[in-house]
Amino acid sequence: MVSTRLITWTAGTIMCCGITLMFYHFLLRPISASLNISPQLQVVISAVFLGVSATIWVLMSGSEDEMVKMSDEIIHERTHKDDKKMLEYNAFLQYMDISRKFNNMSSDNEDKLIALYNELSDLMQTLPQDKLEDAKVLQENMQKRISLMRKTFKGKETNSAN
């Protein structure tokens, strides 16, 4: 695989040579003809211009470490966004599973309902914003069912004691 450093330096070299050729062809030759500058001096002036343009290019392009660091940051940022989306998607799937289990649950299994409620509470931090409101409604429904189960259980205890 070709390294980024090789590609960068090759592109910079071609660019500097191209700029130097354009400088020579469009500026130096016409000026040299009117000022009677010798061909040897034209070569020296072109070489100096090439050196200056290469120096400017190197200063503007920055070091390779900076470029690698920037590309690593971009990759990390994109990966982080993708990871966050994946976590939200997985949380949504878990929410749907909890909702399905809650809707299919019999009304006499308080321990399982409390476990589902706790699972949903833990899941609330990773759910996407658009599903958070639905999850809160589901959580309220679970609380109502738990309190209804407890009231019903207390009523049965009181009746059996009499």
Structural domain tally: 2
Rg computed from alpha carbons, rounded to a whole number of angstroms: 36 Å
The first-to-last residue Cα distance is 85 Å
Total DSSP helices: 5
Q: What does the overall shape look like?
A: rod-shaped
Order of helices and strands: HHHHH
The fraction of residues assigned to DSSP E strands is under 5%
Write down how many β-strands occur, each being a DSSP E stretch of 2 or more residues. Answer: 0
Low-confidence stretches: none
Q: Helicity, in percent?
A: over 70%
Average pLDDT value? 79
Structural class: mainly alpha
Main β sheet profile: none
What key phrases describe this protein's structure?
mainly alpha, rod-shaped, 2 domains, 88% helix, single chain, 162 residues
Report on this model:
The structure is a single chain. The chain has 162 residues and is mainly α. It has 2 domains: 4-62, no CATH class; 72-161, no CATH class. Helices cover 88% and strands 0% of the residues. Helix 4 (110-123) packs antiparallel against helix 5 (129-161). The relative contact order is 0.07. The model has no long low-confidence stretch (mean pLDDT 79).
